[in-house]
Amino acid sequence: MTLKIGELKTDVATFRNLEIVLGRVEEEWEEPLGPTPMPSITSLRKWDYKLLSRYKPFYLPFCDLCCLCTFGKCDLTKDKKGACGIKMDAQQSRIVLLACCIGAATHTGHAREIVEFLIERFGRDYPLDLGDQVALEAPNIRLVTGIKPRTIGDLEEVLDYVEEQIAHLLASTHTGQEGNNLDFESKVFHAGMLDHVAMEVADIAQIAAFNFPKGDPEAPLAQLGLGVVDLSKPVILVIGHNVIPSVYIVDYLNETGLKDEVEVCGLCCTAHDITRYSDRAKIIGPISWELRFIRTGVPDVIVVDEQCIRTDVLDEAMKINAPLIAASEKACRGLPDRSNDPVEEIVEDLVSGRQKGVLILDMDKIGEVAAKVAIRLAPKRKKFKALPSVEEIVEEAKKCRNCGFCQKACPNSLPIPEAMARAKEGDLSKLADLYDYCIACGRCESACPSGINIITMMVKSSERRIKNEIFNVRVGRGPIQDTEIRDVGRSIVLGEIPGIIAFVGCANYADGGHELVEMAEEFLKRKYIVVVSGCAAMTIGMYKNEEGKTLYELYPGNFDAGCLVNVGSCVSNSHISGAAIKIANIFAKRPLRANYMEIADYILNRVGAVGIAWGAMSQKAAAIASGFWRLGVPVIVGPHGAKYRRMLLGRKERKEDWYVYDARTGKKVYVGPVPEHLFYAAETKEEAMVMAAKLCMRANDTTKGRAIKLTHYIDLYKKFYGKMPDDIHLFVRRLADIPITMKDEILAELKKKGWKETEIPDPTLIEELVRVKEE
Amino acid sequence: MKFEPYQTAEIPGPLKAIPIERPQTVAGIIRNAKRPIVIIGSKIFDVAPERTIRDIIEISREVGAEIVVTGGINRKFEELGVKEFRSMPAMELADRLRDPGWKGFDGKGNYDLAIFVGFRYYYAWLILSGLKHFSPDGFRTLSIEPYYQPHATFSLYNMKIDAWADYISSIKESLKRG
Ligand code: SF4
Ligand code: SF4
Ligand code: SF4
């Protein structure tokens, strides 16, 4: 309810045109409220069950036990039940839900912090202006909550809703609550949907308040890599996901005229976001570059905010004599809280080494402390800025007893003992070979009984190459413009642009990051729209062609065929789901406001988008993926992604699973297995590429669009498998679907399978969307 | 160490694979299966010497087992002169193996023994776990990788590649002897 008061006089002031908003945000939004504003944890259950009846969960348990309460441990092997009555399928989905709640809560906590902070700094009425080209500023928020946020203050109510829902979801994982695996899965989808709302809150707030690029396809290039840092300057390293402390560091350097004197570089999403704010900031790399970079000794001070930061970062910082500043309540790391102490005292304690690290929650102090400490310490730290000598490395290798514990501990089973044996002889080449395949997790070191610094040795062995690790990455541009959606919406929905492939997620690669680059390039050449975010966006920038160019320099940043769009950090993933939602709303004019099911149904049946999270590692990545699933966007993960312990797989040969309603007639029509899976862990990049091309096919494709999509699917299949795929008959509906260049081959294949033409309906899974009922 | 999971922290149980020390016993398990299927993962060429890959193919032929290669290694397989094999992503195949209603590649029904080799340790570990818990009665898995795979029904143990190659060769010999 809104009270408007023309003039209010009090003892201290006169207020004119005062507007007091009570309760729910009332916005001027002509669109009527749709059926599911702020859905409860069961409001969309019907939709979830439709998806789950096609895409059945296949669980891959980590162990046979449950140990979540003192009734246990319980053995859930095969058909056994726990003391609470739960069975293995429900238990696995329960763990998936827990992971997704952790992920969604993390983004929500992050968003809440940003919103509160910005309200304090800029006021509740600070407008959410995302630029002239982005009128539809909050597609996820509008779709899920029915709120059209105008100001940063409006986002509070959105977060109230999300937080309440996460509490309910978490509660449902308590012993003796939810007990059915499909209901757990429905809640997993709910957590994912909430996650995208929270990410959108965080990103649109920071874009508006910090003036990040606002959907700019020509966002500038930033430097990326271990070699980008100017070693002659003091170096501040920022790590994490919440950009606020880093903004204060940059501001302090700007305000004090020190911006050219001090290097600010970052790891993980804070690095993405600080380059969206400052043209001087540099990106070191994804999370897996953390140990590597710290071990080089280059950072003079390390500032950590939140999420995906090594929890032993203090130990690592101490090894190189660099002080640590923790800047998040969520990760205090055992450090003394110095937020209320005078800056000079804190600086003195850190520079003198009296304190190895501090917790500072007052952002105004962080910039000054970090800068002053870096400047004072840099000259003293010179001797720490060098890696051990080759001789020292050879000596270190001699400590190796060839026990093999490191290899057993290594997630990628890298042959470290072999490399050590060679290093003992003075040959470091094998150690250097491991560099590309190592995710720098440190498990090998932790396992080594001789205490060998394996990662430092690998870094030293690759030193020359590391110095040349200087790449360009396009700065995260944020949302997709409404005009871009208008321009490409038709081509996507009709299938003429073969698909949108989103490379997202962390850097837990099973066979090195170059695989991601190969995949991205393959789809760019084929004129897919390639969208990237987070660590994946960094990895894609870490390889150059013969001319020394990265993919960002070779392909434009528009949301269009054959373009490479970096939306930004983890929270910018909401712009990828947002783009799919915008296609349904802006291009197809489907009502958006609180109309989740219809929009998801539209995307599932019409928008050929696929996510590839090749190195997905975190719980946040799980939540992001589940938000895509509920919207009808399939996600492929790399081999380590199998550890999310549940796939959502379709069965293409089960004809009964692939019927939709024809919205024009109400008739049920077979449309083939499109898209075939919702969540799938590929074994190799080849498998992933073929699958991605296949998963872009959608029920609504026109014959021309289907022919284009089939061309890519078949062509990729032949390229990697050396023959025709044996399921083409499931994807050809009409003769006109057949790519002309492959006509004879395909016809022969269809004949073998006894193929018959089928209809192309106006597809929907939702009975209520049928316009004319069948007689 | 011999019968411990190869990769650190992959602690399984309570139900763990029966470790098999003698190749002849493995040959017996394969011979007794009614409908065995051999599933060869994308890492086979990184792990196995060519003679071992040939032995595995011969083992499959000896008992008339369907060979399925996963992960898109078809071309390399053809280079070995092997023509008779199927291909399917491993996850899709595992999803079908757990379904008693699946008709198999030849339409004659699901398989009763799935033999795994050539996978990343953890990837096979998870698939084997899925099959351990969610497959129908009578369905069994056998890992013939050169390490202990605890979620299989039967598994070899951790061994050096040379010893493994000999072990696989002995399975083949044993099957040939009948
Ligand atoms: S939650 Fe259930 S299955 Fe888990 S330990 Fe408790 S009683 Fe056992
Ligand atoms: S740091 Fe590298 S080599 Fe060591 S365990 Fe991790 S991935 Fe393996
Ligand atoms: S764990 Fe250490 S001692 Fe053992 S093989 Fe590896 S590097 Fe050598």
Please give a handful of descriptors for the protein shown:
heterodimer; A: 775 residues; alpha/beta; Substrate Binding Domain Of Dnak, Chain:A, Domain 2; Rossmann fold; 4 domains; eight-stranded mixed sheet; six-stranded parallel sheet; 28 helices; B: alpha/beta; globular; binds iron/sulfur cluster
What this model shows, in words?
The complex is a heterodimer of chains A (775) and B (178). Chain A has 775 residues and is α/β, with parallel strands linked by helices. Chain A has 4 domains: 45-210, Substrate Binding Domain Of Dnak, Chain:A, Domain 2; 226-384, Rossmann fold; 394-467, no CATH class; 471-768, 3-Layer(aba) Sandwich (Rossmann fold). Helix content of chain A is 41%, strand content 12%. In chain A, the strands form 6 sheets. Chain A has an 8-stranded mixed β-sheet with strand order 3-19-22-18-17-14-15-16, with helices on both faces. In chain A, β17 (609-613), α25 (619-630) and β18 form a beta-alpha-beta unit. In chain A, α2 (88-122) packs parallel to α5 (181-210), α12 packs across α14 (416-424) and α23 (574-587) crosses α24. The radius of gyration of chain A is 27 Å and the shape is globular. In chain A, 58% of the residues are buried. Chain B is an alpha/beta fold. Chain B has a single domain (18-177), classed as TPP-binding domain (Rossmann fold). Chain B has 7 helices and 7 strands. Chain B has a 7-stranded parallel β-sheet, with helices on both faces. In chain B, α3 packs parallel to α7 (161-177). The longest helix of chain B is centred in the C-terminal third of the chain and has 17 residues, at 161-177. The model of chain B has no long low-confidence stretch (mean pLDDT 95). Chains A and B meet through β3, α13 and α26 of A and α4, α5 and α6 of B. The structure holds iron/sulfur cluster (SF4) (3 copies). One iron/sulfur cluster (SF4) binds at residues 66-69, 71-72, 74, 82-84, 86, 175 of chain A.
